[in-house]
Amino acid sequence: METSRMNLSADAVFAFGKSDIASISDEGRDQLDRLVARLQRIRDVRAVHLIGYTDRIGSDGYNDTLSRRRAEAVRSYLVAHGVSDAMITTEGRGAADPLVACPDLSGSRLRACLAPNRRVAVSIVAMRHIER
Questions:
Q1: Which tens digits make up the pLDDT trace of 18-54?
Q2: Torsion angle of alpha carbons 96, 71, 21, 114, nearest 10°?
Q3: Which of 6, 47, 103, 112 has the fewest Cβ atoms nearer than 10 Å?
Q4: Exposed (0-12), middle (13-18) or buried (19+): which is 32, by Cβ within 10 Å?
Q5: For residues 113 and 90, what is the distance between their CA atoms, to the nearest angstrom?
Q6: How far apart are CA 45 and CA 39, in angstroms?
Q7: The overall pTM is greater than 0.85
Q8: Domains of the chain
């Protein structure tokens, strides 16, 4: 088995603070369409795991819900475009596992700095080598 991992930027896919399919941007649809095409090219896909993350701004409860809903929205998009629902799992981890810390910033500078933390991590598990 081989696993391939990638991150979808939540800022590119969703409007800030949003998690519904209707709020997916054109850039987000392009990213998701490329993911669908990649999944269709890979033979023997066994699982696709989607993990939503947020930045640290906001309450834990809000961020946990937002991250889960974003992962679920990506799942819905993939399923609507032909990816088997049975192989997709989702979870939301809120502000856990940040990629950047951004100490000593506030306001719009903090929000911009924390952008890498707002993401949906995609793990694709396949029986054979996965083309990068």
A1: 899 888 999 999 999 999 999 999 879 999 999 999 9
A2: 20
A3: 103
A4: buried
A5: 26
A6: 7
A7: yes
A8: 2-126 (3.30.1330.60)
